[in-house]
Design a protein that fits this description.
The complex is a heterodimer of chains A (280) and B (279). With 280 residues, chain A is an alpha/beta fold. In chain A, 40% of the residues lie in helices and 22% in strands. Chain A contains eight helices and ten strands. Chain B contains ten helices and no strands. Chain B is mostly helical and 279 residues long. In chain B, helix 3 runs antiparallel to helix 4, helix 3 packs antiparallel against helix 9 and helix 6 runs antiparallel to helix 8. Classes of the chains: A alpha/beta (280), B mainly alpha (279).
Chain lengths: 280, 279
């Protein structure tokens, strides 16, 4: 079932993971993770909680180092965080002691050190305007709703101009309306710029993964591993209402759900076998 | 870390016993709305009445040993110029010692709290040195240092340093992971990380250390002044105790209480402004 995008791993010019594993102490979190994500691709990492998808994203970000295997961006190994890869976390990652504008301009000072300070503030304002926060530029995070804070975090990451966006369940804590709005915002940004940004989007929501991405990498739990990869070839721009009602969408959603159920059943069986063996 | 973190909490207990919450909230049944919210003032009035009653009724060997409120108030009024001068003299010692302690405690606390090697190096010493009651340094500091001001300033520094340092260190070490991750993602240098992220994020801890440290500095200062000052609040109380002028002495105690209260209140206002973003 696994679709290999590139036959020769050396030719990959996007994000690549080769036989990556990761462990917390003696507990294996991820094992045998192997994939290539092309430049400009929108990929979802989909899986139940506890499957290590956040850990995988942190590895891609360079916040963690794999126990074995290696991860690279444009054939260069990832050894630590870099401004190449912007990250949006689930919990609102703005600094609460800075205004929105200050949050953005502080980040811009790192990503665009050569830029004049006034231009940085202008750029910060432009991005805040783009995510619909024009009226809240001078506000502090505590004065904003969760959805607005997450918009600010997205604006900050976008303003930094990283070619790669790593998003860790960025809309997990939002209400459905805000969630849909921000999904569309991310899609607009992704399809609106050339060259397109490479997006890795972590979620546990099948519909979200299918609506947003071009490919879904499915992760199973204990240990976290890739159980399947599915191309999502619905034409873009996608209309939420039409897509969610379409038979093709529902069929794909059903297939993915079934695949996860199968994986859970398998691992339950193997777990009980292991338990039995340990008992002896 | 565990031992280092429980030291400030000990000092916090000292702090809360020294400055109890001003209005204790007791739920009152609907019928007694008159009292509601005024319990603190009522208690103080009750204490005043008790004081008046006791000092008026009970016969002491000297009638001035336990002066009435009125006599004390008059003594306070008469000594006010002297007390104000003493306050100035006290603050000349207190302010440099305390501010230096805050500066050193915050800088060193941020470094020790964020650099594990430094933490391993310093925490055994801190574990040993921080619980030593700083008052025991006073006689030696007076003997060792050339002037009384230096000696008193030194013990004020010691008294304020440990609470500020330990709290800052705890705050820096307890930095939420998301701030650390964000700082790494944004590529902050160590200096930027400490200044822009760790310092503001630790401010709630730092201010609680500064509060404890401030009360400690006053204790250290007045005790030091009992030993060998020529002026100051502690000296005032000691002087009139020696002269058996108890109305003035009691007035000095009250006045010192007011000064500490005002200082703590000032710090509280600064804290409120600095921590407006904490919700």
């Amino acid at each position: 079932m696994t679709h290999s995008i590139t036959e020769n791993p050396k030719q990959s010019h996007g994000l690549s993971a080769r036989e990556v594993s990761f462990a917390h102490g003696r507990a294996t979190v991820l094992a045998g993770i192997d994939f290539d994500i092309e430049e400009g691709e929108f990929v979802s990492l989909l899986g139940p909680s506890g499957c290590g998808k956040t850990t995988l994203l942190r590895l891609l970000a360079g916040l963690e180092t794999p126990a074995t295997g290696n991860i690279s961006w444009k054939t260069r190994p990832i050894t630590g965080p870099s401004l190449d890869r912007g990250v949006v976390f689930q919990d609102y990652s703005l600094f609460p002691w800075m205004t929105l504008r200050k949050n953005l301009s502080t980040a811009l000072a790192k990503s665009h050190p050569e830029m004049d300070k006034r231009w940085r503030l202008d750029l910060a304002d432009q991005y805040l305007e783009m995510v619909g926060l024009a009226d809240s530029i001078g506000k502090y995070p505590f004065e904003l709703s969760g959805g607005m804070q997450q918009r600010g975090a997205i604006a900050r990451t976008l303003a930094m101009g990283s070619p790669v966006l790593l998003m860790d369940e960025p809309f997990g804590a939002l209400d459905p309306v805000n969630r849909a709005r921000l999904q569309d915002l991310v899609l607009d940004v992704w399809s609106g710029v050339t060259p397109r940004k490479t997006v890795v989007f972590v979620t546990h929501d099948i519909e979200e993964a299918l609506y947003l991405s071009s490919r879904v990498i499915m992760l199973g739990a204990s240990p976290g591993r890739i159980i399947d990869q599915i191309q999502v070839s619905f034409p873009r721009p996608r209309s939420r209402a039409q897509l969610l009602d379409s038979g093709a969408f529902q069929e794909l959603r059903g297939r993915i759900a079934a695949r996860f159920r199968q994986d859970v059943n398998n691992s339950c069986e193997s777990e009980s076998l292991v338990g039995h063996a340990e008992g002896i | 870390m565990s031992v280092m973190t429980d030291i400030p909490s000990k000092s916090k207990i000292v702090f809360t016993s020294a400055a109890p919450p001003r209005s204790v909230c007791i739920t009152v049944p609907n019928g007694k709305r008159l009292w509601h919210g005024k319990e603190g003032i009522l208690f103080l009035l009750g204490m005043l009445a008790l004081w008046q009653a006791v000092s008026g009724c009970i016969h002491f060997s000297s009638k001035y040993l336990f002066p009435t409120p009125l006599v004390t108030a008059r003594a306070l009024w008469q000594s006010l110029p002297e007390l104000l001068k003493g306050t100035g003299s006290s603050f000349v010692i207190l302010a440099p010692g305390y501010l230096l302690a805050v500066l050193a405690g915050v800088v060193w606390g941020l470094l020790v709290g964020t650099i594990p090697a430094l933490h391993r190096m310093f925490s055994p010493f801190a574990r040993f040195a921080s619980p030593v009651p700083p008052t025991v340094y006073i006689p030696y500091a007076i003997a060792l240092l050339p002037t009384f001001r230096m000696a008193a300033g030194f013990v004020v520094f010691i008294g304020a340093f440990w609470p500020v340092f330990l709290n800052t260190c705890t705050g820096a070490a307890a930095l939420p992971q998301r701030y650390r991750d964000n700082a790494r993602i944004l590529g902050f240098t160590r200096g930027e990380y400490l200044w822009r992220i760790v310092l503001p994020a630790s401010l709630p801890h730092i201010f609680s250390g500064m509060g404890v440290g401030l009360v400690f500095s006053f204790i250290m200062l007045t005790v030091a002044e009992l030993f060998g000052a020529s002026a100051g609040l502690g000296r005032f109380v000691q002087l009139y105790a020696d002269y058996a002028d108890y109305p003035r002495m009691v007035a000095g105690i009250f006045y010192t209480g007011f000064v500490v209260l005002l200082s703590v209140e000032l710090l509280e206002q600064i804290k409120k402004r600095a921590l407006f973003w904490v919700k």
